[in-house]
Amino acid sequence: MKEWWIQVGLLGIPLLAVYLHIPPPQLSPELHSWKTSGSFFTYKGLSIFYQDSWGAVGSSEIVVLLHGFPTSSYDWCKIWEGLTQRFHRVIALDFLGFGFSDKPRPHHYSIFEQASIVEGLLRHLGLQNQRVNLLSHDYGDTVAQELLYRYKHNRTGRVLINSLCLSNGGIFPETHHPTLLQKLLKDGGPMSPILTRLMNFFFFARGLAVVFGPHTQPSEAEMWDMWAGIRTNDGNLVIDSILQYINQRKKHRDRWVGALTSVAVPLHFIYGPSDPVNPHPEFMNLYRKTLPQSTVSILDDHISHYPQLEDPMGFLNAYLNFINSF
After folding, report:
1. For the chain, which ranges sit under pLDDT 50?
2. What sign does the CA torsion over 90, 79, 225, 136 have?
């Protein structure tokens, strides 16, 4: 019996080593095209990926898109063309630690740094003195809240915000319900480095599927695109560090919710009500009570946490109706 366990152990060690060194999946033609059509800029020695499309002739308006966790700017691909038909420029970035951007480790990932990266991108593009419309989702909502705080307090280098549209983000810590894996990883315990290394496509897809509606699940190809974005530059190994944003939301709640309560720019929220992370009606009741000045678009009952992917036409129409209202 003892010798049998030794043999299993000797066999298991090389198999585990192979598993831990499985290369990231090959990019699909669509994701490869997204990467090659984009660009990179350098922020404090770190490479940040972004897209910048010139769109509608005769329009001078700019929209900047801020994606969610754990995905990337590719989340906006289904509404990209529609946005270019309305805006002069459509800009999106992969936050540090996401998508095709650098994923340094060890590194203290923070919402404050991500907001500074957005400011740096607009300086890089020569748009620091231009008013921009912010459209955000999930993690990007919190980055947008920090940008709004800096704008309100006239901070040097601030983004000049023309309007803000949020979507399905945990802007209130008290109504935010992280997934099980997020709970396990967000506190950086001893299991975090083990779990991030053992994460694979199967576990990722199972975990992400729960935040999509039952009738709006991503295809397997779309799941692989999301996973490929995470695995690029070993992004799975920094997920626990990035997840500190959940704790940052609690710590800085007054700063970030306060930025919204006295907002002086048009404010809108697009909501997929089947979202288990920000559940209905708990979330929306608090939102309307706290931010009565904001307008709201609630999509169909079956739309969940990724409304721009689950109902791209409904999401786009809701956003354009908001933009055309002022």
Report:
1. 1, 8-19
2. positive
Parallel, antiparallel, or unpaired: how do β-strands 89-93 and 46-54 relate? antiparallel
Nearest in space to 52 (alpha carbons), one of 100, 102, 89: 89
Asked whether the beta carbons of 185 and 199 are under 8 A apart, the reply is: no
Are 298 and 268 contacting, i.e. CB atoms less than 8 angstroms apart?
Answer: no
Whether the full predicted model's pTM is greater than 0.85, yes or no, is yes
Contacts of 34 by beta carbon, 8 Å cutoff, 6+ apart: 51, 73, 74, 77
d(CA 217, CA 268): 26
C-alpha–C-alpha distance, residues 252 and 236, integer Å:
26
pLDDT of residue 271: 98
Domains and CATH numbers, the chain: 33-324 (3.40.50.1820)
For 9, the token pair is 């152990």
- Residues 323 and 266: beta-carbon distance below 8 Å: no
Report the C-alpha gap between 46 and 224 in whole angstroms.
26
CA-wise closest residue to 21 among 227, 197, 219, 203:
197
Q: Write the CB contacts of 1 (distance below 8 Å, at least 6 apart in sequence).
A: none
